Structure prediction request, 488 residues.
Amino acid sequence: MIPPLRPAFIATGLLVLTGCTLGPDYAAPNAPLPIGFSSARPVAATLWPDRAWWRGFGSPELTALIDLAMAYNNDIAAAAARIQQADAAVSVAAAPLLPGINASASGQQTHNFGLTKAQRAAGVTALDARSFSASAGFSSYEIDLWGRLRANAQSAQATALANRFDAETVALGVVASVANTWVQALATKDRLTYAQANLRDAQQTLRAINGRLAAGTASALDAAQQTTLVAQEQANIPALQSSLDQSVIALGILTGQTPESIVVHESTLTRLSLPPVAPGLPGELLTRRPDIAAAEANLVGANANIRAARAAFFPTITLTGDGGWQTAVLSTLTNPANAFVSLAGGLTAPIFDNGQRAGTLEQARGREQELLANYRTAVLQALTDVENALTALRYATEQERLQSDAVAAAQRAAMIARAQMQAGTIDVTTLLTIETSLYNAQDSLAQVRLARVQALIALYKALGGGWTQDSPLATPTAPIPSPLAGAL
Prediction:
């Protein structure tokens, strides 16, 4: 399951810097925002989505399916794995800010067996040489004088945070997909119910016509026309059943389960509660969409990469150090008289690199401009998503009301027509027309109701699904350690 997000204000949380930096300092990008949403109806108070907005539909089954998806969906699992990788990359990038320490110990003994006869005759014995040492030290530790290493670490931290926001975007998309697929299944069940009810009515009418045919008060043409209607309504049912089965199969993929383990018990879309939502100002949307937050986190990382590229033009100072004990007698190894220490420093200044550093800096600047454009696109897309969802919800709600009236009228007409058909006062063609209109009206109502619910789901998703930047994080990104070197 994707860990929730900790309090994180990108512009400040990622750019805490001790020491000298070369800029440019990060500045939050500007994006053109309207005063309000043109498709929103005037309301008394703003009502943003709840974090668990799907519970507002009042269906334990939908809640259980979304819980399964959050725990077992493979896209969410992959996003969580990317968070793990990005957090590890922060540790890797931050490691050079502190010196690495290595320890070593060694012992050596040399015995000379190569004495000549003359040496042995003269009383020379075999030569033994012993040495023991233990030391600890660091090598090639760069003093982060210009903030290059810290900028690299901050870029990695921004990427890690962007991965968290991306994971929230993935989770929001999965939740919306589960809800959409589930309500699609319920709408198909409603359409099946209407089709089966109309089939029963058509079969009952056919029996009545056959009875009249036997009595000589109806024609064979009347019976044939009603038989055709029955066959057509029977043919509609397999297609609807196939659509229902495919929705259930899709729920299996979304929840990470095998298709045969998913069963939709809820029988109709009409009993669902429709939780209200009223968006606030467009400016508030910027802090409620994880995709926008991810786009800005990437901008923060790009800004840090520019600072790192600029710092590469300046000299670097590296230190190496070693200290320990060295002696020929192991028992006196820790004697202070046998201690030694060494410290060395070096300075490296770039003179000519055939444009490599300049190219790296220009590349970082170009990447920042690309990410700035992506950020503005994300903002515009968010505004468009909300406007589209509000528009769809408004007109689908109105259409459902009108279509409900049409169904009620068609049901009254069908009831009257069947009674008149029994009495022999209308012909079968009139009845066929009315029965067909009733079925079409009922089927359209189920589809319009589905469009309304899916528009509401789209609105919840467009508004960020209750996400905010101050949502708590269970797994924070790895912190950047303070450098040991002095700062300017």
In short: The chain is about 55% helix and 10% strand.
